[in-house]
Amino acid sequence: MALDGEWHQRLTWARAEKATRVAVNSVVFRSSGQNLTTAGTYIEMTSRLLEPTLFALAALAARGRIKR
């Protein structure tokens, strides 16, 4: 497979954004396997980052209430 075209034709924001999403989904997140829109993909990624944080904050709040 040969790469055709000039650099400015091959290096676009759309391709860079898609490459970033693919890399992040394969390394950090486990994709749900559903076909989501771009907004849905970012919402899923954000929720996967926030869920453990919110769980840890809830555990700390419960620990603080129990210690009193």
Keywords summarizing the entry:
3 helices, 0% strand, 68 residues, mainly alpha
Describe this structure in words.
By secondary structure, this protein is mainly alpha-helical. It has one domain (12-67). The chain has helices spanning 7-10, 13-27, 38-67. The longest helix is centred in the C-terminal third of the chain and has 30 residues, at 38-67. The model has no long low-confidence stretch (mean pLDDT 79).
Q: What summary fits the major beta sheet?
A: none
Q: Helical content, roughly?
A: over 70%
Number of helices: 3
Shape call: elongated
Radius of gyration from the alpha-carbon trace, in angstroms: 19 Å
Number of domains: 1
Extract low-pLDDT stretches. none
**Which structural category fits the helices and strands?**
mainly alpha
**What's the SSE pattern?**
HHH
What is the terminal separation in angstroms?
A: 67 Å
Mean pLDDT: 79
Strand content: under 5%
Summarize this structure briefly:
This protein has 68 residues and is an all-alpha fold. It is 72% helix and 0% strand. The model has no long low-confidence stretch (mean pLDDT 79).
